[in-house]
Amino acid sequence: MFAKLQETLEDALAQVAEAADAETLSRLRSRFLGRKGRLTSLLRQTGQLPADQRPAFGQAANQAKQQVEAALAQAKERLAAGPAADQGPDVTLPGIRPRRGRLHPVTQAMRLVLDVFTRLGFDVVQTPEVETDWYCFEALNLPPDHPARDMQDTFYINDNVVLRTHTSPAQIRVMEANQPPLRIVCPGKAFRRDSDVTHTPMFHQVEGLMVGADIAFADLKGILTTFVHQVFGDDVPLRFRPSFFPFTEPSAEVDIGCVVCRGQGCRVCGQTGWLEILGSGMVDPNVFINVGYDPDEVTGFAFGMGVERIAMLLWGIDDLRLFFQNDLRFLRQF
Ligand code: DAH
Asked: Residues 146-202: pLDDT tens digits?
């Protein structure tokens, strides 16, 4: 009878495991546990056993009933969970759309700037972030005592090798490797030993250079005016303010009408109504000599701008550090 009990139990568990619907489960329940069920009948026959075996058999039979009971409950749950749990993925369920990635605002601003210049016929080039003193300073007409060369401002790899402090070395590399006429923009990273609310040790610049037989200051003004209007809007005023850079002569900084107060004067523009957005100028003859060009034959202009600054003005971002904290709540807005 013990063997019969074991056999019945195994049969019950196997059938429950295969049951595919609730109806089958209830049929199985009555077949095994009902008043006339197979386990119930076995339990009733306990009295036919020798007296010393009755307690053990009764106990085993009751345990078997409990096991079948538990298996039925489990099967019921499995069926309630639906076909997914039972038969692999339910291909009819709506999918979970993956969140779409996006470009960093600095990358977006960079591309916007490059797009304008490529439409104007400029080629995009990239040059090394680690430069020698020659490319970063000397060839650009920066005198040996220029403050940019100070250990305070520049990351030195050794006496002669630095992390470029600006993208202007691209001018030298491009002119050394090519003959005029040429029109290039160079996007990339620049590095300075500077870190506060408005400075980060790494930032991005776009350098520009146009060289040819008769490039005049009027060309500089025309190209940069087009640039400002395409990036910030046709109605944004701009002005060319005299300035100084060692590698250009004459030099000018370009200001645009404050995009925050529209020229009325506010905290962002320091009450002036103007915001500086780039440095520029006519390439200094010494720079041409340094790359083997004849300053009597060619002229040209150059410019350089900070990309984070452009992005801040485009989208009204007032804290530079937001670009580098990688806070998705910030980045998802662009
Ligand atoms: N290299 C300058 C800087 O990092 C920016 C600059 C000014 C670049 C005038 C130029 C230029 O090409 O003509 O601040």
From this structure: 887 887 899 999 999 999 999 999 999 999 999 999 999 999 999 999 988 889 999
Q: Is the pTM of this model over 0.85?
A: no
Residue given tokens 């749990």 in the structure block: 85
Q: Where are the alpha helices (DSSP H) in 141-297?
A: 169-177, 217-232, 285-290
Q: Whose CA is nearest to atom 7 of ligand 1?
A: 279
Task: Give the angle 269-302-128 at the CA atoms, nearest 5°.
Answer: 100
User: If you average pLDDT over every residue of the chain, what do you get?
Assistant: 92
Residue 225, both tokens: 């005016």
Q: State both tokens at 141.
A: 């007409």
Domain ranges of the chain: 2-87, 105-331
Measured CA to CA, the distance from residue 276 to residue 306 in angstroms comes to: 10
Q: Which helix (H) or strand (E) holds 136?
A: helix 133-136
| Contact indicator for 299, 183 with CB cutoff of 8 Å | no
Angle 2-18/54-80 helices, nearest 10 degrees?
A: 0
C-beta of 166 in contact with ligand 1 (< 6 A): yes
Q: How many CA atoms lie within 13 A of 122 on its CB side?
A: 27
Q: Does residue 217 contact residue 198 with C-beta atoms inside 8 Å?
A: no
Mutating to test ligand 1, I would choose from 136, 141, 154, 166 the residue with most ligand atoms within 8 A of its C-beta, which is 166
The mean pLDDT of 301-314, rounded to a whole number, is 97
Pairing of strands 182-191, 123-124: parallel
Q: Report the DSSP beta bridge partners of residue 207.
A: 186, 304
Tell me: domain 105-331, CATH 3.30.300.30, correct?
no
